[in-house]
Amino acid sequence: MGLLIKGGEIVTAESRLKGDIFIEDETISAIGTGLAVPSDTVVIDAAGKLVFPGFIDPHVHIHLPFMGTFAKDNHAAASAAALIGGTTTFIEMCCPSRKDDPLETYHTWKQKAEGNTACDYAFHMGVTRYDDKTEAQLTEIVRDGTASFKIFLSYKNFFGVDDEEMFHTLKLAAKLGVITTAHCENAELVGQLQQLLLAEGKTGPEWHEPSRPEGVEAEGTTRFATFVEQTGATGYVVHLSCAPALRAAVDAKMRGVKLHIESVLPHFLLDKSYAERAGVEGMKHIMSPPLRDKRNLPVLWNALKTGLIETVGTDHCPFDKEQKLMGAKAFTQIPNGIPGIEDRVNLMYTYGVKRGGLDLHRFVDALSTSAAKLFGLYPRKGSIRVGADADLVVYDTKYRGKISAATQHGINDYNGFEGFEIEGRPSVVTVRGKVQARDGAFVGKPGIGRLLRREPQRKE
Ligand code: URP
Ligand code: ZN
Ligand code: ZN
């Protein structure tokens, strides 16, 4: 039995056309107007609605042991929330600590996701140390279809790599033809500044940003770009938050470094005043790199509009209020992270496309197609074309609502975007032709998501 999505405005990263999409089994088999379809076809009326390719979140944390606790979510809830919000594929960070065995960690992450995830998914493999086993282990993981790495220049002694380890990781990535994503902050400066602030009795969440100022991120970005350049690797800066880091990344791009830039939902909509609120209200908004001075926000929006920022992820990383209060005596103990997997598409559509002058095609590109291309999922994902997976979002631009923890579907007791208005939300969401979400509710089958095998993108 086929599925027909009828009469919608089909919008991709490069085109717009009113028509029908016919789905057989798991893929798109025809696109056109007045398509002749078998009589048992299920019809979804998309008249008056936009139809987008399924959105891809290239940066999420679901299973995450971090800062003495675990991120709050699980794969069933996070994937249902993702789908309700229009995200049909996410890429989760698989993060061994420096003490963990990478292969064992990789299998743990796979086991957690398998059979529990309602949308499709992939992993970035975290490289958190480099020793004589690393090359063989990472080669095996890449052969298994996980063709991207993640390194942290911050979080010293936990996830963080030093320069020597970064060099070897990037050399191996170049040899294997995989892209390396990086959290770019100078770990030593963060550690020293944290100690200075605490010694002065500056313990509240408002001191988190001053402990990791913009220059600290710019330095990390510059250094990562230099190492990418000298190793011939391809790099991807995750969750870029401020103008000086953007300048550092763009400077590298201009000299031909293969460097790509992601920013994430909180950095477009929230500024550091949220983290300066007293007590747990501020703690809810602690992430790294931190929320910045508001003068950075228009810079990031402009960079997104012009394509300098290529992708928008969430850095979804939920910790509840009790966990945030682990840092009641010292901001350095507040678990870092702000959830957003359910809200990225609606908020970026509302504040970007509807209210901010973001081109609709650039929106699709930044929230879906670019990530598919960079991470080896295109054109199976991130496109609407014959043969592509039937991951589709029928989008209701007339919906009006507000973000609220009371109505969200992810596991957490707050929402960092509480009260933000939204103008639009997904009406129907399909994953490989199965209707998984409708009008703010999960209506599909849990656990049908597949781990997506990805091939290396380029070799040395
Ligand atoms: O604060 C954040 N971003 N938490 C998640 C871990 C990371 O650095 O991405
Ligand atoms: Zn990070
Ligand atoms: Zn992250």
Report on the structure:
The chain has helices at residues 75-84, 102-113, 134-143, 163-176, 187-199, 208-211, 214-231, 243-254, 265-269, 279-283, 296-306, 321-324, 344-356, 360-374, and strands at residues 3-11, 16-24, 27-32, 42-45, 50-53, 55-60, 65-66, 69-70, 87-94, 120-126, 148-152, 179-183, 234-237, 259-264, 311-313, 392-402, 421-431, 434-438, 441-442. By secondary structure, the chain is α/β, with parallel strands linked by helices. Strands 1, 2, 3, 4, 5, 16, 17, 18 and 19 form a nine-stranded mixed β-sheet that branches. The radius of gyration is 21 Å and the shape is globular. The protein starts with a strand and ends in an 18-residue tail after the last strand. The protein binds N-(aminocarbonyl)-beta-alanine and zinc ion (2 copies).
